[in-house]
Amino acid sequence: MGGIGAIGLPGLIIILVIVLIVFGPKKLPEIGGAVGKTFAEFKKSTKGLIDDEDDPAKKEEKKSDVS
Asked: 16: helix, coil or strand?
């Protein structure tokens, strides 16, 4: 079971054609922009979480602020 990586190029083309038919060519740039902004925000948030976990100095600062 390959998951999403098993879709391949033909499957991806079919999905894109269906999306084009459903939303139309005028809505696609709006949808693409919204998806791009969502992914960028998600990436920024997860990077912030990972950075907070990896930095022991920040953990100590948080502990001292609470006490």
From this structure: helix
